[in-house]
Design a protein that fits this description.
The structure holds 2 protein chains of 2 kinds.
Chain A lengths: L5 H14 L2 H5 L10 E6 L3 H9 L1 H8 L2 E6 L2 H10 L8 E5 H9 L25 E5 L2 E6 L22 E4 L4 H13 L8 H9 L5 E3 L2 H9 L5 E5 H9 L5 E3 L6 E2 L2 E6 L6 H11 L2 H11 L21 H4 L2 E2 L3 H20 L1
Parallel strand pairs in A: 1-2, 1-3, 6-7, 6-8, 10-12
Antiparallel strand pairs in A: 3-11, 4-11, 5-8, 5-9
Chain B lengths: L4 H41 L17 H7 L2 H34 L2 H16 L2 H12 L4 H8 L12 H24 L4 H9 L4 H29 L3 H7 L6 H11 L3 H29 L21 H36 L18 H8 L1 H34 L5 H13 L2 H14 L5 H27 L2 H9 L4 H30 L4 H4 L7 H9 L6 H24 L1 H5 L2
Chain lengths: 348, 581
C-alpha cells in the first residue's frame, strides 16, 4: 500500500473544501458565545440611535453578546480598516457605495453571501459591494419660488435663473460625484469619459458657493447665499419638513444618481456569525421602517412595506428602476484624480 | 588664586550633565510617542508611489517631494496657509493683548469669573464654536442685525472666505495668546510702571518702554503657538471656508484619508512643517534681539534697548486714542469669545432638526433629553476628563525640568532639542494620526487609553514647555541666591522659592494642557476605539451624519459644568491666589 504524499493530501483537503456545500464550510466558523463583543463602526446621530434601538437589543437577546460602537466619519473608519486589513478591530463597518466596492476588491471587507438571511431580498444594486442597507440617492434640490418652471432635467441647471446661484457640491463627496457623473451622462459622457462632466460643471461658473455637506447647503439656502444644489433627497426631505418648506426635490428625466449606505463585514473578523446576524437584523422590517420614518432613507430590500404617508418621500420599487448606477469600482480608482481636478479646475 | 583646571572642568561637566538630565525625560517621551510615528511619516514620504498595503520600508524615492515642490497648486496652498496663519496671529495678538491686560487688572475676587471668559470657549468643541461664528456672520446673523439698526448692510459676503476662517481661528486660538501673556504680565511688578510714571512717562510711553517689552517673552510664546496651530487647523477652516478656502491641513487630510494617498500627504506635511518651523525660527530670532535681558542671568540687562523710539507726535496721539482703542479692542475680544457661545446656548433650545439653522422655530428641551438619555455622552465626557488629567500630569512632569534645561543650562545640542520639543505643534494633527495609526497597526497594540494618552501628551508638551519657559525666565534668581546663602539646599530652594514662583506658570500650563487635550479631535478620532471614545470625537461623530442640536445641548451642559466647577474651586482653593505670584 502506497502512503499518500503530504502534497496530495493537501490537494485533496483543498479540493474537498472548495467542493463542499456552503453549509458544511460554515460549520467551521466559531459559533458565538455569551460575552462575545461585536465592534461596529458607524456614523453618529440618528444612524447610531436607530441601530441601537432596532438591531442591538435583538442581537444581544439572541446571543448574549455585547455590542460596541466606533463612531465617526467614513474617512477615519476606512483608513483604519485599510491599516488593519486581515486583523481588523472592527467586525462591521459602514461605507458608501463606491468605497464598499473598492474595499471588497482590496480584500478589506467581504463580498456579500447568502449567510445573511435577509440578503435574499436585497435589490441587485444593493448586493454589489457589501450589504446595502439604505438607498439615499442624490438629485437637484432648489427653491421652488425661484424657478420659472419645475426642473425636469439635469440640463435645467443651465437655465438663466440659476446663474450665480448654484452651490456646487464638493468632490470628493457623494453629492459632488453625483453632480459630476450625472452631468457627464446627460451630455454624452460617462464615468470613463468624465471630461464632459468637468466641462459642464465649469460652464456653471460662477458658483454661489462650494457646499461641503447637506448641513452646509441648507444653511446657504436659508441665508439666501444659494438657490440650487445637488444633495441627498432623504436629507432634503427632512429639511423640507422643518426649516425649508419652500424647496423642491427634482426628479430629472435622465434619472437620479444612486447612492447607498453599505454594511460590510471585515475580512478576518473573529465574530463572523454575530456580524452576519447584525446585518440580517439591520435588513429586517423594524429597522428598515425606522430608517424610512426617521431619516427618509429608502429600503434596500423588496420585502418591506412602504407606509402610505411616506410614499412621496421614499423610493418605490418602480422608482428603483430610475436610479442611475455607474462602475463604482472605476470611480473609486479615480477618486483621487477627480478630487484634485475638482479643487484645481472647479472650486479654485 | 587660579582655580585648578580639573576642578573647573568638573564644574562645567556637572552643569552640562544637570542640563542634560533635565532634558532627558521629555526627550525620551517624545522619542517614543512622537519621533517613531514621525519616522513612519518620513518613510511614507519617501515612497515612490501609493500602495496602502505595501511594505513600509521601500527603496527611497524623492518622487513625492518633486510632486509637491514642482506643483504650483501645492505651493500656492502652502503659501496661502502661512498667510492665513499670519493673519490669525495678528488678530489674536491685537485682541488678546488688551484682554490679558484686563485680566491682570481685574480685582482678585472677580478674577476667577474673568477667567471664565477665556476658559469657557476653550472647553467648547471646535465644531460648535465654528457653527457659532457662522451664526454670527451669516447674512441674517447677529452682526448684520446690529448693523441693520444703523441702516448698514446686510453684508452677504462675510461667510465662506479667508476672512471668516481668520475670525473663526482667532476665536479658537486667541485664548492661548491671552494665557501666555497673562502669565508674564501679572508677574511684572507694578512698581516698574510706577517708576516710569514718576519719571514723567505718559501712558503710551509707559506701554512702549515698560509694559510691552516686559510682555515680550509671553508674546513670543503666544505668537509661535497660535501661528503653528493656525497653520495646521482643519475643522474651522472647513466649516467657515465653505469649500473655497483650502489650507495645507485640509489638503493633507484629503490626500491621506479620502484618497488614501499617504506618500503625498506625508511629503506635504513635512514641507509644511519646515515652512512653519522657518517662521518660528525667525520669530525666535527677532524676539531674542528684542529681549536681550532675557538670557542675561540675574535679570540685568538693557530693557527696551532695541525697541525704536517713537516719534513724539505718535506718542501724543496714542495718549489720546490709546485708552479708547484698547477699550474697543477689549470689547471686540470679549464679544468674539462669548457671542458664538451665547448663540450655541440659544440653539440648544431651538426646535430645528439641524444645528446650523439660524431660524428659531420654537422652544424645546428635547435635545437635552436625547443627550441625557444617551449614556454615551457621559461616558465620553468622563473619558475626556481622565485623558486630559492624565496627559496634563505627565506633560507637566517632563516639561518643568525641560523648561529649566532650556533657560538655565547651556550644553551642546540644546538648541536642537528645543526645536524637537516644539515639533509636535507644527505638524498637522492628521499626520500624527496617520503615523500613529500605521505604527500601532503594523508593530504592536497598546491598550487604547495608553495609546491615546501618549498622543495627547505629545500634543500638549509644546504648550507646557512654551509657557513654563516664559515663567522660568521671570523667576527672580536673586531670591534663590539669597536662600542658598542662608544655607538652603537645592531641594529646599526648589520647594520654597522656585515652585511658589512657578505656580502661576504651572497653573497656566495645566489649564492649557487640560483644555488642549480635552478638545482634541483630529488625532483622537483616528485612535479612538469602541471602549474609548472622547466627547469631542462623539460630537464629531454626530456631525458626520447630520449636525443635530444635541451637540449644542452637550456644549451648553459642558459650559454649565465648567462654571460650577470654577466657582466651587474658587470657593475652596481661591483661584485668584493660584494665579497670583
Amino acid at each position: 500500500m502506497t502512503l499518500m504524499k503530504r502534497r496530495t493530501f493537501g490537494k485533496l483537503v483543498l479540493g474537498t473544501g472548495v467542493a463542499a456545500p456552503f453549509s458544511f464550510v460554515r460549520s467551521a466558523i466559531a459559533q458565538p458565545k455569551p460575552g462575545d463583543e461585536l465592534i461596529v463602526g458607524i456614523w453618529g446621530g440618528a444612524q447610531e440611535r436607530i441601530v441601537r434601538e432596532f438591531v442591538e437589543p435583538a442581537l444581544v437577546e439572541k446571543y448574549g453578546c455585547k455590542v460596541s460602537y466606533v463612531l465617526g466619519g467614513t474617512g477615519e473608519r476606512r483608513a483604519r480598516a485599510y491599516a488593519e486589513r486581515g486583523r481588523p478591530s472592527f467586525d462591521v463597518i459602514y461605507l458608501n457605495i463606491y468605497e464598499s466596492r473598492q474595499a471588497v476588491t482590496d480584500g478589506v471587507t467581504q463580498a456579500p453571501t447568502d449567510a445573511v438571511e435577509n440578503a435574499q431580498y436585497l435589490y441587485p444594486l444593493a448586493k454589489m459591494g457589501g450589504y446595502g442597507v439604505a438607498f439615499n440617492p442624490a438629485t437637484i434640490i432648489y427653491k421652488t419660488d425661484k424657478a420659472s418652471a419645475p426642473i425636469t432635467s439635469w440640463k435645467d441647471l443651465f437655465n438663466d435663473e440659476w446663474k450665480g446661484r448654484f452651490a456646487v457640491p464638493q468632490v470628493p463627496g457623494m453629492e459632488g460625484m453625483a453632480a459630476l457623473l450625472m452631468l457627464a451622462k446627460t451630455y454624452g459622457g460617462d464615468e470613463f469619459n468624465i471630461d464632459v462632466g468637468f466641462d459642464k460643471l465649469k460652464e456653471l461658473k460662477p458658483f454661489a458657493a462650494v457646499q461641503t455637506s447637506a448641513e452646509n447647503a441648507w444653511q446657504m439656502f436659508e441665508q439666501d447665499i444659494a438657490d440650487i444644489t445637488v444633495e441627498f433627497g432623504s436629507l432634503a426631505n427632512i429639511a423640507k419638513d422643518s426649516t425649508l418648506p419652500g424647496i423642491t426635490i427634482a426628479d430629472p428625466t435622465e434619472g437620479i444618481c444612486a447612492a447607498m449606505n453599505v454594511a460590510c463585514i471585515t475580512t478576518g473578523t473573529q465574530n463572523q456569525v454575530l456580524a452576519e446576524e447584525w446585518i440580517n437584523l439591520h435588513l429586517s422590517e423594524p429597522c428598515m421602517q425606522a430608517y424610512m420614518r426617521q431619516t427618509y432613507y429608502s429600503p434596500t430590500v423588496n420585502n418591506v412595506v412602504i407606509p402610505d404617508d411616506l410614499k412621496d418621500k421614499i423610493l418605490t420599487p418602480e422608482q428603483m428602476e430610475r436610479l442611475v448606477s455607474f462602475d463604482w469600482e472605476h470611480i473609486a480608482s479615480k477618486q483621487s484624480e477627480w478630487s484634485s481636478r475638482f479643487t484645481r479646475e472647479i472650486a479654485g | 588664586m587660579v582655580q585648578p583646571l580639573h576642578a573647573g572642568n568638573r564644574r562645567v561637566i556637572s552643569q552640562r550633565n544637570i542640563g542634560r538630565g533635565l532634558a532627558t525625560p521629555v526627550t525620551l517621551v517624545l522619542i517614543a510617542a512622537f519621533a517613531v510615528p514621525m519616522a513612519v511619516v518620513m518613510l511614507l514620504s519617501l515612497h515612490g508611489y501609493s500602495d496602502p498595503f505595501g511594505p513600509l520600508f521601500r527603496t527611497p524615492s524623492a518622487a513625492q517631494y518633486a510632486t509637491v515642490l514642482g506643483d504650483f497648486f501645492y505651493l500656492k496652498v502652502v503659501l496661502e496657509t502661512l498667510l492665513l496663519a499670519g493673519g490669525v496671529t495678528v488678530v489674536s495678538v491685537l485682541l488678546g493683548y488688551p484682554l490679558a491686560l484686563w485680566l491682570v487688572s481685574v480685582p482678585a475676587r472677580w478674577r476667577a469669573l474673568a477667567f471664565v471668559v477665556i476658559l469657557i470657549p476653550l472647553l467648547t468643541n471646535v465644531v460648535v464654536r465654528s457653527l457659532g461664528i457662522v451664526l454670527l456672520l451669516a447674512p441674517d446673523g447677529i452682526l448684520n442685525g446690529v448693523l441693520g439698526w444703523f441702516g448698514i448692510g446686510p453684508f452677504r459676503g462675510m461667510l465662506y472666505n479667508y476672512g471668516a476662517v481668520c475670525v473663526a481661528l482667532a476665536q479658537v486660538f486667541m485664548p492661548y495668546v491671552v494665557l501666555a501673556l497673562y502669565d508674564v504680565l501679572q508677574g511684572t511688578s507694578p512698581r516698574v510702571h510706577e517708576a516710569a510714571e514718576s519719571l514723567g512717562a505718559s501712558p503710551s510711553m509707559v506701554f512702549w518702554t515698560v509694559r510691552f517689552p516686559m510682555a515680550l517673552p509671553g508674546l513670543r510664546a503666544g505668537i509661535v503657538v497660535v501661528f503653528l496651530m493656525a497653520s495646521t487647523a482643519y475643522v474651522s477652516a472647513t466649516i467657515l471656508g465653505g469649500g473655497r478656502v483650502l489650507t495645507s491641513g485640509m489638503l493633507v487630510y484629503r490626500e491621506a484619508i479620502v484618497n488614501l494617498n499617504y506618500p503625498v500627504a506625508a511629503a506635504l506635511t513635512l514641507v509644511m512643517t519646515l515652512a512653519s518651523l522657518g517662521f518660528s525660527g525667525v520669530v525666535l530670532l527677532v524676539f531674542r534681539r528684542l529681549t536681550p535681558w532675557v538670557n542675561n542671568a540675574g535679570g540685568q540687562g538693557r530693557a527696551a534697548a532695541t525697541l525704536p523710539a517713537l516719534p513724539i507726535a505718535l506718542v501724543r496721539t496714542m495718549d489720546v486714542v490709546g485708552p479708547i482703542l484698547s477699550k474697543v479692542l477689549l470689547a471686540a475680544a470679549i464679544l468674539l469669545l462669548l457671542l458664538p457661545l451665547y448663540l450655541v446656548v440659544m440653539q440648544s433650545f431651538n426646535d430645528v432638526p439641524q444645528a446650523s439653522s439660524a431660524k428659531f422655530m420654537g422652544f424645546t428641551l428635547k435635545w437635552y433629553q436625547l443627550v441625557l438619555e444617551n449614556g454615551n455622552y457621559t461616558a465620553a465626557f468622563l473619558n475626556s476628563v481622565r485623558l486630559a488629567i492624565g496627559s496634563t500630569l505627565v506633560a507637566l512632569a517632563v516639561s518643568i525640568p525641560a523648561a529649566f534645561a532650556l533657560v538655565r543650562f547651556r550644553f551642546p545640542g540644546i538648541s536642537g532639542l528645543a526645536v524637537f520639543w516644539a515639533l509636535p505643534l507644527s505638524l498637522p494633527g492628521v499626520a500624527i494620526g496617520v503615523g500613529m495609526l500605521q505604527l500601532l497597526s503594523i508593530f504592536f497594540r497598546l491598550p487604547p487609553f495608553l495609546g491615546l494618552l501618549a498622543v495627547h501628551v505629545v500634543i500638549v508638551i509644546p504648550f507646557c514647555i512654551s509657557l513654563l519657559v516664559a515663567s522660568v525666565m521671570q523667576l527672580d534668581r536673586s531670591q534663590e541666591e539669597a536662600a542658598a546663602s542662608l544655607g538652603a539646599n537645592a531641594v529646599q530652594r526648589f520647594f520654597r522659592i522656585i515652585l511658589p514662583g512657578l505656580a502661576p506658570g504651572i497653573a497656566a500650563a495645566s489649564i492649557m494642557a487640560f483644555l488642549t487635550s480635552f478638545g482634541e479631535v483630529t488625532v483622537t478620532s483616528f485612535l479612538t476605539t469602541a471602549r474609548m471614545t472622547t466627547l469631542p470625537v462623539r460630537i464629531y461623530a454626530d456631525s458626520t451624519f447630520m449636525l443635530e442640536p444635541t451637540i449644542h445641548a452637550v456644549s451648553a451642559m459642558t459650559m454649565l459644568l465648567t462654571l460650577i466647577a470654577l466657582f466651587v474651586l474658587n470657593k475652596f482653593l481661591r483661584l485668584d491666589r493660584l494665579y497670583a505670584r
